[in-house]
TrEMBL record:
Key words, A-Z: Copper, Membrane, Metal-binding, Oxidoreductase, Transmembrane, Transmembrane helix
Name of the protein this chain belongs to: Multicopper oxidase family protein
Family annotation (Pfam families): Cu-oxidase, Cu-oxidase_2, Cu-oxidase_3
Regions of compositional bias (Polar residues) in chain numbering: 333-345
Gene3D superfamilies: Cupredoxins - blue copper proteins
PANTHER family from the UniProt entry: FI03373P-RELATED (PTHR11709:SF394), MULTI-COPPER OXIDASE (PTHR11709)
Organism domain of life: Bacteria
Region (Disordered): 333-356
TM stretches of this protein: 12-29
Organism annotation: Halobacillus trueperi
Record bears the keyword Oxidoreductase: yes
């Protein structure tokens, strides 16, 4: 009996050990660490619905606006005697201004005459995922000699822009962008102008910033712009610099809606004549502005609309004079018969209006919402011994960054903290989010500029199924890793990321 009891105990002990090991393994594989998948794995699991089958696109009885954009190489004159080799849509920088009315069905046929693949991303537009223009995620890039037609409904009025998302750090830098304006129905202002801001490397190699010594020295100064200041030597407005910029013709007392888009990778501060400017909208969302500030700060990828009133004399709207190359970014505002000689940027430097200064008129959430999904997004800088500097989300680089996993209808909170020494304008595709405004209310945006040491909490509703990028819109940072994806777990992308098909 004793021997039988020993055998029973040994069997029971072995069973318990095996059971404990099994439970431990199960717990380990159910842990957040093991359950977390990288953004690069989103395309490998064909579970649920393909993004190509989401949300049918139908014009119905809507008016249809059709455009053709051809990507091609162009020698572009920035100013007299200074030209660059540009990649353009329809041969100009920026590309054709696409103007439609709210509610229009928009069709844009892209033809590629370049020797590299391209796409078009419709920055800020809420549209079906398969029209978002992100290679390897929502489509295959359009190969040389091929075409692709984008279709969407222009549901929301406002200022948007379009640009390539194929190797965007290079292709946007070379001029593949243009404005998209969705006009409200009804009266149009007499003056409605778009100004796209950018930076170019005209007299230097744009890759000089990879000189690690100079880069690290600059980043230690806490400027937030050290890398872009190293990379570029010329500022442009609508593809032109300095005296080559076309003046805005207005008479005393006239008003204009001026739509500013920052297509570059450097933050810009535009100085207006005192009392002449009032902010109207940020990222296509109308805001409640006080109109008391005359400096406008606009981050990379951001769009800001202002109401401008012309004074008695000729005036100028220009980059803060203390910024190097500021003389390149000056917009003369002249009466019809004036030559506008010897104009200078004037005005004091009071508090600056920027993307988070004022509350939006219409909010996504009236109060802080109950949250279904929380995500901590830590932005930092690191080193890859093979490639140099990298920019990380949660200590990883794309496509190994952890995605934000959601289901349709989830309310999502993202806490974003910049632990590095450079600015990171974080842009969310396919959604709008809400963040606290400096005036005490809340502002609705699709891009938040997070400066060194800053933190923001944003909220959005997962109401647009698909696989959506969330990335830094200093595309040089995105190119070196600062990208993740909002992953609706019930859908999958049939496209694959690879070296030639990368956002």
């Amino acid at each position: 009996m004793w021997e039988v009891e020993v055998v029973k105990r040994m069997w029971f002990g072995s069973f318990m050990i095996i059971a404990l090991i099994a439970v431990g393994v199960w717990v380990f594989f159910q842990s957040p660490f093991m359950q977390e998948k990288s953004a690069g794995e989103l395309n490998s699991s064909e579970q649920g619905q393909s993004i190509l089958d989401i949300q049918p696109i139908d014009a119905g009885s809507r008016p249809t606006k059709q455009f053709e954009l051809t990507a091609k190489e162009t020698d572009w004159e920035i100013q007299t005697g200074e030209s660059v080799n540009a990649w353009t849509y329809n041969g100009t920088v920026p590309g054709e201004a696409l103007r439609v009315q709210q509610g229009d069905f928009v069709q844009v046929e892209l033809h590629n005459e370049l020797e590299v693949p391209v796409t078009i991303h419709w920055h800020g537009v809420i549209l079906p995922n398969r029209m978002d223009g992100v290679p390897g995620v929502t489509q295959d890039a359009v190969e040389p000699g091929e075409s692709f037609t984008y279709e969407f409904i222009a549901e929301d009025a406002g200022t948007y822009w379009y640009h390539s998302h194929q190797h965007s750090s290079l292709q946007v830098d070379k001029g593949l962008y243009g404005p998209l304006v969705v006009e409200e129905k009804g009266e149009k202002p007499e003056h409605d102008e778009v100004f796209i801001l950018d930076e170019w490397a005209v007299n230097q190699d744009r890759e000089n910033w990879t000189n690690m010594g100079g880069m690290m020295m600059g980043s230690m100064q806490g400027d937030g712009e050290a890398d872009t200041k190293e990379m570029y030597d010329t500022f442009t407005v609508n593809g032109k610099a300095g005296d080559a910029i076309d003046p805005l013709r207005m008479e005393e007392g006239e008003t204009a809606r001026l739509r500013f888009v920052n297509a570059g990778y450097q933050l810009h501060r535009l100085v207006f004549p005192e009392g002449s400017m009032e902010m109207l909208a940020v990222d296509a969302e109308p805001v409640q502005s006080s109109g008391e500030r005359n400096v406008l700060e606009i981050a990379p990828g951001e769009r800001i609309d202002v109401l401008y009133t012309k004074g008695k004399d000729d005036e100028i709207i220009g980059e803060m004079p203390s910024v190097e190359n500021s003389q390149d970014m000056q917009i003369p505002v002249l009466s019809s018969d004036s030559s506008g000689e010897n104009l200078q940027v004037t005005g004091k430097d009071p508090a600056t209006s920027k993307g988070t200064s004022y509350a939006s008129k219409d909010l996504l959430f009236d109060t802080v919402p109950d949250v279904d999904v929380s995500y901590d997004m830590n932005l930092s800088m690191g080193m890859n011994m093979g490639e140099g500097m990298i920019w990380q989300i949660n200590d990883r680089v794309f496509p190994e960054t952890p995605p934000i996993q959601v289901e349709k209808g989830d309310i999502v909170k993202v806490d974003i903290t910049n632990e590095g020494r450079l600015n990171h304008p974080m842009h969310l595709h396919g959604h709008r989010f809400q963040v606290e405004a400096e005036d005490g209310g809340a502002v609705v945006k699709d891009l938040i500029n997070v400066k060194p040491g800053e933190s923001y909490t944003i909220y959005f509703e997962a109401d647009n199924k698909g696989e959506w990028l969330f990335h830094c819109h200093d595309n040089n940072h995105a190119d070196r890793g600062m990208v993740t994806i909002v992953d609706y777990t019930s859908v999958f992308s049939p496209f694959e990321l690879n070296q030639t098909n990368q956002p």
